Amino acid sequence: MDHDTPAPTAATPWHLWLIGTLALLWNAVGAFDYVMTETRNASYMADFTPEQLAYFYGFPTWVVATWALSVWGGVLGAVLLLLRKRWAVPVFAASLATMAVTFFYNYVLTNGIAVMGGAGGLIFTAVIFVVAVALLAYARALTRRGVLR
């Protein structure tokens, strides 16, 4: 057998385009939120209380960095998924890991639940985390099937 011959690639399933596009849109919303918060966009931040604004603007640099890696990693992972690149798996994994660190800060090391008004923010955070886990699992499954190369 010739070792220089690339392995055959599986056909692209229709759901890759659907899930990849939805993943890109979902993660783009997170990236937009990050940019609007970090640039302190007045119209975007207008609905937050002064306490919430102080909370967001008081994030330590390392939390801002993990948040950035999380959201931009999600965007990059979705793009790599659409490009059928196996690099989507480690990028989604890194995004998920940095997301977990950010959420740990928000809900364990600080009073994020109280500042954000209770369980609603925690539930939305859980949804974000579940979607990230699902995208990682999806990319891994496509890699095992030979769809991502």
Please specify the SSE layout and strand pairing.
Elements: H1 14-38, H2 42-45, H3 50-57, H4 61-82, H5 88-109, H6 112-115, H7 119-144
Helix pairs in contact: 1-4, 4-5, 5-7
Q: How does this model look, in words?
A:
The structure is a single chain. The protein has 149 residues and is mainly α. The chain has one domain (14-144). The chain has helices at residues 14-38, 42-45, 50-57, 61-82, 88-109, 112-115, 119-144. 22% of the residues are buried. The mean pLDDT is 91.
Which features does this protein show?
single chain; 149 residues; elongated; mainly alpha
Radius of gyration from the alpha-carbon trace, in angstroms: 18 Å
Assembly context of the chains: single chain
The helix fraction, in percent, is over 70%
- Proportion of residues in β-strands: under 5%
Shape: elongated
Q: How would you sum up this structure in a few lines?
A:
The chain is an all-alpha fold and 149 residues long.
